[in-house]
């Protein structure tokens, strides 16, 4: 701001020249300056008063609007809530291939306490313990009478429990809405679904998150509101799953097995129609993971068909025969010398129970399950080509089956793949895989030679992957597997009308800390059916089976896994829409003549 001098030199000199008093000029300038200062102070004060008036007007307007809104709304009990982002509650349903509910949501309530608002905390604690016997009365009393301002009592309660708590009538005991995950079929398909739990929680909402199975694998999809609550449709068939679990449980008990698993897979689409692992659990009340012990299979949470990585035994022999035929080294009728002795380095290769089958065809090598026969085929194939073939069947990587547990089922390969490994792997020892890997391998034989990836999602039409063998090779392998059932080690596996084809496998069970048990085995029966038009693959595995038959204790798959698989096929084939093929009756020997 430019200030005017009180004694301007030009005006002073001019006044003196005219004989006037220069002090008059100074007094006039001082007066004018004071007038300007008063005008500026008045304008500044008026502006401040205007801003203050507008502030009070807005404040009283907001208060008046809020009072009017409260006066016209219904009275509600105030609820304590933590500040922060809102909690998403809705979660999409999970349904089977026919749209039947596997997992859905249920509206319920939680109950919590605000001790400062309680009237009679001791009486309230006593009544709460009578409603929820698992609560600790002494701890409740300490919490209610202490310095705590908030505590959960129960995260989920039933309508009956809510009414009982409401009848206590204490204003310090309050309810919050909850959305809980409900599995209406209980234990059915528990290892597929996995389970869920609460993530972020507030008194007015709780976030439901997946903790295992498809619930965790597809957690983002199930929680995404952009999907418009569109359900997640799986490839499972609820009725088939129920039949499989019922028969498998009965078979496990009859065969005195520690555990069991079954995988039913469409050989052309890769859809897993049913997958069961026993013992199981109820996802509505999922148990906690074990915190001690060396054997994970002791827990019901252990998923045997993807996490159960074992040497599966003679079920691998058909892969050796198929590759040898694919390479043109042999055909189904080529004679193989299976007589002994046979040694790889210092390790002898023997047969089950010391048998000697002599010179037999490749088909009979599979029918009689000859270790030496497949071993000699494997030596012709060679280690490198054997690895390439098994890799093409998906035997070296975790199965792509879409549940989180599948990533933990990584096959175990030998560190050094020499001649000995080539021979032992040819009959299912030295390479550990899961039943789901085996299902994908047998699907390639059943569908004419294509690899198909096992999936838990609903698919439309065939989903063929790369070709791993010719159609002619697959047909010959199918015929060999059929003969195993009609003439070989799986004679208990035939089901009238469905022409079952398959291969048995009995392998010594490994110890958790290394080595093998002398009296414990993993018994497996891998089947394709119906053999005349293969559509499905069924893998049945029993953990430590043992049955007394004809006065002897028997553990091999032909006596344990095979009868269970046969009963399963008889039960589920009609549910899958497969009609039995009836053998034509012999015509009467009547000759029609005319006169």
From TrEMBL:
According to the entry, every stretch annotated as the Penicillin-binding protein dimerisation domain falls at 89-223
Q: Where are the transmembrane segments?
A: 49-69
- Cell compartments where the protein resides: Membrane
**Any one GO molecular-function label of the UniProt entry:** carboxypeptidase activity
* Gene3D superfamilies cross-referenced by the UniProt entry: 3.30.450.330, DD-peptidase/beta-lactamase superfamily, Penicillin-binding protein 2a (Domain 2)
Q: A Pfam family matched by this chain, by name?
A: PBP_dimer
The record's InterPro entries line, in alphabetical order, gives:
Beta-lactam/transpept, Beta-lactam/transpept-like, PBP_dimer, PBP_dimer_sf, PCN-bd_Tpept
A GO CC annotation given for this chain: plasma membrane
> What does the UniProt keyword field contain?
Carboxypeptidase, Cell cycle, Cell division, Hydrolase, Membrane, Protease, Transmembrane, Transmembrane helix
Residue span of region Disordered: 277-299
Q: What is its main location?
A: membrane
A GO BP annotation: cell wall organization
Annotated Penicillin-binding protein transpeptidase domain residues? 261-555
User: PANTHER family per the record?
Assistant: PEPTIDOGLYCAN D,D-TRANSPEPTIDASE, PEPTIDOGLYCAN D,D-TRANSPEPTIDASE FTSI
Mind telling me what this protein is named? Cell division protein FtsI (Penicillin-binding protein 3)
Q: Which organism is this protein's natural source?
A: Ruegeria halocynthiae
